[in-house]
Design brief:
Number of strands: 5
CATH architecture: 3-Layer(aba) Sandwich
Number of helices: 8
Structural class: alpha/beta
Radius of gyration: 16 Å
CATH class: Alpha Beta
């Protein structure tokens, strides 16, 4: 057991060390621009990535906004369960993020999606609409990239395919995107 844990941590450190600092700094600039221009940042994922999206909204919407002259407008598309289930039931699960953005998003807003596979149909469909509608698109995915990695205007591909390590690396990035504003702005 101990050897497995040590091996896991060794791989985890390798993955975290591979996070591209310049790309994260570029995303922080995108977030600042969205905040300064009163744009909305839409965030989503499935499963563990949905949990990361929810966590990010809390940290950016509260931690990086309270008591500051400019606040972030940030929405997690995976947090309204009745809305999600109605869209999934009446249309299709692949439409649950897209249909919310059709109602809420405008050109210039930011769409940040997370998917380890990069090929989740609901994320890919929403990403295509976001690109076609003039949103700034951001994808966090694994080294496979998938459609998300190929199509997002700003993509960070984590150098691993292990779901836990990739989701952990995504959360590291999301925390950096929040704490750069909490501790430096």
């Amino acid at each position: 057991m101990k050897q497995w844990i040590e091996s896991y941590l060794t791989e985890h450190r390798r993955v975290v060390a591979s996070i591209p600092v310049d790309a994260v700094a570029d995303l922080a600039k995108l977030m600042a621009t969205a905040r300064d221009e009163d744009r909305t940042i839409f965030v989503c994922g499935n499963g563990g990535s949905a949990a990361n999206a929810s966590h990010f909204v809390v940290d950016l919407g509260k931690g990086a906004s309270l008591g500051r002259p400019k606040r972030f407008r940030v929405v997690s598309l995976n947090d309204n369960v009745p809305y999600l289930t109605a869209l999934g039931n009446d249309l299709a699960y692949e439409d649950v993020f897209l249909e919310q953005m059709v109602n809420l998003a405008a050109a210039g807003d930011v769409f940040l999606a997370m998917s380890v596979s990069g090929d989740s149909p609901n994320i890919v469909k929403a990403l295509k609409w976001a690109n076609d509608s003039g949103l700034v698109t951001v994808g966090l995915t694994s080294r496979r990239g998938g459609a998300l990695g190929r199509s997002a205007r700003h993509a960070i591909l984590i150098d691993d395919d292990h779901y836990g390590r990739v989701e952990d690396a995504h959360m590291h990035i999301l925390h950096m995107l929040c704490y750069v504003f909490m501790e430096n702005q």
